[in-house]
Amino acid sequence: MPKIHSNEVLNRDFYARPTVTVARELLGKILVHKGKSARILEVEAYLGTGDRAAHSSRGRTPRTQVIFGPPGHAYVYLIYGIHECFNVVAEPEGTAGCVLIRAIENHDGPGKLTRAMEIDRSHYGADLTRGPITIHTGYIHNDEIVEVTPRIGIRQDTHLPLRYKLSSRFK
DNA sequence: GTCACGATTTGT
DNA sequence: CAAATCGTGACG
């Protein structure tokens, strides 16, 4: 019998690819934590080199070290002293690159989805292939398309098309 | 040690 | 449009 729907945890190889590829392919995947799960609807790619909007652009620091480490780990940081932002590390070990998760089903906004999923800085460096936070194979509906736009809220390299958003073909 | 600032959200 | 709120990184 053909499998019509799988629900497997994404493996290391999924993440060990170019950041833009990982970003685009994270759309429709399912974020799981503490018994809650929701599809990823919006992401942004932050590149390792030549991307001044990326935290990793000024090299390794205590905060950004995980971005240079092995792929498939969580980069979580505090923004504006208030909100936690959840990122997924991409690229092979030694190369920087990560994907900011901006929206999941029913929770639009980087700070809002982390609160909803109970993700915070205690998960910094967590291995997403092991848990407690995991990302699973998902689905994209036939009437959904991928929108590509500039990233939100940055002040440098503002025109790069690195934001990917799943939205209805109609609307 | 000090200090300016941010990949946001919320309220006026 | 402005406030909230604090860790980070640059500086020296």
List keywords for this structure.
alpha+beta, about 15% helix, 9-stranded antiparallel β-sheet, DNA-binding, globular, about 170 residues
Number of helices: 4
**CA radius of gyration:** 15 Å
For the largest beta-sheet, the strand count, sense and barrel status come to:
9 strands, antiparallel
Shape field? globular
Number of strands: 9
Which range does the strand content fall in? 25-35%
Helix content: 10-25%
Unreliable spans are none
Oligomeric grouping of the chains: single chain
Gap between N and C termini? 36 Å
Protein structure class: alpha+beta
Q: Mean pLDDT, as a whole number?
A: 96
How would you explain this protein's 3D organization?
- The protein has 171 residues and is α+β, with helices and mostly antiparallel strands.
- The chain has four helices and nine strands.
- Strands 1, 2, 3, 4, 5, 6, 7, 8 and 9 form a nine-stranded antiparallel sheet that branches.
- The chain is globular, with a radius of gyration of 15 Å.
- 34% of the residues are buried.
- The model has no long low-confidence stretch (mean pLDDT 96).
- The chain binds a DNA duplex (12 and 12 nucleotides) through residues 44, 46, 53-55, 58, 61-63, 77-83, 85, 87, 100, 102, 109-112, 121, 151-155.
